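#struct-help
A.M.: can someone run this one for me? Single chain, 225 residues.
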Amino acid sequence: MPVIVLCSTKGGVGKSTTALLLAQVYAEAGSQVTLIDADPNQPLATWASRFTKSVPERLEIIGGVTEETVVEVIDDAAERKPFVIVDLEGSANVTASYAISRADLVLIPMRGKQLDVDQAARVVSLIERESKVFRRQIPYRVMFSMIGMLQSREQKHIRATLDGKGIPVLDTALFERAAFSAIFQIGGTIFDLTAEDVSNPKAAQENATAVAQSVIAALNEETTR
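D.P.: on it. Structure tokens below:
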């Protein structure tokens, strides 16, 4: 079963938000999902404990994961659930290395700023090192997350640079929407939100679903290579 790992060495790029949205979309579609919170700040485990009654039945959230337990937790979840999603701390540490070694796909979120590109490059280097250690090519995708609807000149330049270096980029970007932060404030999933909660929740639902579908497409692309 696919293990999707979210990794970034920079904070504020939407890593935990992306992990939670993917888990919610797959659960909404009928899949059983395990979401592993390996971030010491425990943003996802906190969300689950704070809003226990509104966590989807198909979504299991495991917190308190450390470098000593992360491999065992991932392997166990992968045997039980169709989807395993791992949210890592914002640093290239031992836990990140162990989790990446188990990944079927690593997602590297970035906001489309040059500083984010520099940090994303560090994660790519880490993935390449782990690929050599484990003697298998670990697939990854850089993804634009929490960006504006209109593509800036800087984002266009960055995308061209990534393409020129042969760095694969996820086809769909995650836009910055009030709905994505609202689920951390009021609980539930993006599919529970109404127009009374946030502006245009349907657009947020469609965007998150499109990103989740792009992730599936990337997984399928890698398995056919």
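A.M.: thanks! The chain has one domain: 3-223.
D.P.: also worth noting: The chain has a mean pLDDT of 93.
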